[in-house]
Amino acid sequence: MRPAPPPLVGDLVTALGAGAVKAAPLDKRLFSKDAGVTRGEVVAITFPTDAAQVSDVVRIAARHRIPVVVRGAGTGLAGGAVPSQPAVLIVTTRMDTVEVDAANQTAWVGPGVINLDLSRRTAPLGLHFAPDPSSQAACTLGGNVACNSGGPHCLAEGSTVNHILALEFVDAAGEVVVVGGAAPDPIGLDVRGVVVGSEGTLGVVTRILVRLTRNPPAVKTMLMAFPEVSGAAATVSEVIASGILPAALEMMDRPMLRAVENFVHAGLPVESAAALLAEVSGHPAGVIAEVDSIAEIGRRHGATEVRIAADEPERALLWKARKSAFGAIAQIAPDYYLHDTVIPRPRLVEALEGIYEIAERNDLLIMNVVHAGDGNLHPQIVYDGSVAGQLELVKHAAEEIVEMSIRLGGTLSGEHGIGLEKRDLMPLVFSPVDLDAQARLREAFDPEHLFNPGAMLPAGSRCFDYGRPVPDGVWA
Amino acid sequence: MTGLRSTVARLFGRITAEVPGAPAADFTLAPTTAEECARVLDVASEHRISVLPWGGGSHQGIGGRVEPDLLLVTSGLGGSSDDTADLTVTVGAGVTVASLEAALAVRRQTALLPESPGDATVGGVVATGSSGWRRLRYGPTRDRVIEVVLATGDGRVVRGGARLVKNVTGYDLPRLVTGSFGSLGVICSVSLKLLPTPAASAMVQVSDVSSAIGTAYHPLAVLETPAGTVVYLSGTEAEVEAQASALGGTTESGVHWPADPEGSFVVSIRVPPASTSEAVRRLPPACDFVAAHGVGEVRASLNPADLETVASLRSWAEGLGGAVVVMTAPGDHGFDPWGTPPPSVPLQGKIRAAFDPVGVMVPGRMPGDR
Fold this sequence. Notes:
The complex is a heterodimer of chains A (476) and B (370). Chain A has 476 residues and is of the alpha+beta class. Chain A folds into 4 domains: 7-93, Uridine Diphospho-n-acetylenolpyruvylglucosamine Reductase, domain 2; 95-214, Uridine Diphospho-n-acetylenolpyruvylglucosamine Reductase, domain 3; 218-326, Alpha-Beta Plaits; 333-423, 2-Layer Sandwich (Alpha-Beta Plaits), CATH 3.30.70. Helices cover 33% and strands 20% of the residues of chain A. In chain A, the strands form 4 sheets. In chain A, strands 12, 13, 14, 15, 16, 17, 18 and 19 form an 8-stranded antiparallel β-sheet that branches. In chain A, strand 8 (164-170) and strand 9 (176-180) form a beta hairpin. In chain A, helix 9 (254-264) crosses helix 11 (312-323). The longest helix of chain A is centred in the last third of the chain and has 18 residues, at 390-407. The radius of gyration of chain B is 21 Å and the shape is globular. Chain B has 370 residues and is an alpha+beta fold. Chain B folds into 2 domains: 1-197, 2-Layer Sandwich (Uridine Diphospho-n-acetylenolpyruvylglucosamine Reductase, domain 3), CATH 3.30.465; 198-329, no CATH class. An 8-stranded antiparallel β-sheet of chain B has the order 13-10-12-11-15-16-14-17. Chain B has a 4-stranded antiparallel β-sheet with strand order 4-8-6-7.
């Protein structure tokens, strides 16, 4: 006789149907981690199709006093979708509707819609969704909202939050709340702005109003090779200061160039210390002038090769090289740890030198791709997880990179998020009073810590008590 | 109040004289640091006295009227970082927009704050979430507020964000504070993203708005006034020239911005962008207005005695998910400053309580307060 399902699972099945709930051991294991290095315990996995079903799951979980963790495609790298304690998982992939409003250049989308699918769908209208994480072929818009995701093209267009006009979410009481709107400057506090990037800790987003961006009439992509990292970094600084706002400005260092070239055969300058991939887009007349300016600035800083993609296939190849950076690493070692910190742009050379020093001291291979235009570092530490002690060494080096970034005036994360991975590093950048304020903000949404407990804020953040008795009726 | 007055005088020294245009208050203080601000607010929360932060006074007409016990003037919260090489600046809330932009212009940089700021301060522009006309090209001010130091209603100094152009570390307090109208606390300083001034700019008069919007790529603004519609362009010389000739209207190099509509009753009509022309069509004849096409905002000067027109504009705008917000109104004007409050007002109240548990900050100002 089969064992009776635990009452929680039974309640979920009653509410959602058997096809929308999984609780078999293999499923629980499959959904216990994201694309990063942490793993957690899942009690049940649910696949609701709309806000009403999400509300059911939230209410059932609350009744059973089991936390709720939300997951899209599981491409996150910081453990934002990994339970820190046994939890019910809400997987958003069945919430995948798209309703485009071409006149207002917006779309209401479900959180389970895949980033690239949205842009493909709106391409006939000459529109796209601007944030383009490297995982865009797999990651969901709900995940982008949760992490305020970036991508190479965020340099000119801004991160996800700049492209989200309104959100529908289910709060900790199971109520459906809508914040924001298609009109400019909705009245009242910008709740939308704080739910974006909240890593599933404030509510479960069930619908998203995105702003779509007009496809640029002209695009030029170029690759410049430098014998010194400092020449590439100086080029970045001067391009940014010159008034050109490239659509993207990416740097790869020599170890990364070699790994990627082996993988995609794009004719990358593997003998160079660093290469810059720059893309300018906009009006054709402006694009031509800007490409010339960037090439001139690059040459002045020692660029030995300036290659301007002649056609769309060559442009696609250059981008494939950049976006394959993570896949290419698989050839070198079985595992990699993809890091994400930010520094002020003028400190780029110091930051890379610091990373090389940390790599050498810890006897690790670290390869770098950098969203150079906005100072967002992505060191990738390659290792073999089957070797005892390697992961610990990698995590130690990763922490050293964080500390160095902060010494240079930077911070913990530019686009991956804090999740479980960097939660305990938060006191490096925020005072106890700052963290307490964030914890209070979280409790304004979710007083019982139902949503993604343990993510983002370290334990004990809510440590200050300035509490004065609040008179009756003040906020009623 | 006499006892409190002597306590405040002992704690904070001088009690500043009256501020022109400000409502009468029992105390007027001008703290010079975030810590001093927080101490003032701590006392305010302890004694349950209501607080109205005051910058240049230029945006105080927005929202419900506040009758404060304490006027907290931000003019002493000055200072600005000299190094803006990373295209970011940290600036005190009391610094005026005009002086910040003038200092940046020398370096060929801009914070893209409102173009005709009058006496507005940086803190005031952030607190009211005000944006300039160039938001069509560069997005609203809130997209460029990257760090905030806030003295909370109960007297804590809280920092959120960082002086970095890209950052997802912690909740986005800078965004929450932008447009909060002082309801969470007093903004003491902010860091802003900057942009280099473009090499060239121009204005092109056009007759057909919708075809101009389709033709121009990433214009700074497309503004319609009773005098006509103008497309504002910027970029490289070559681009501006090519775009201007494609638009085909009378072109003038450089840009100058229209003045905000003047009058005793000015409203901001906010609708989804495609409804901007319809908003203009619904304005009464001979009214002064500026319409930001592509953005969805029309600022219009209306007759304060004609409540029927504004009420019908509001009901139309709210039907589209928008709003009609009063920017300026005569002192005794009865028209609801915000209109229908958003459904998230109960949640907003909880968020405010997390920063201002006693409720001393700007009581009456926000949607749903009255």
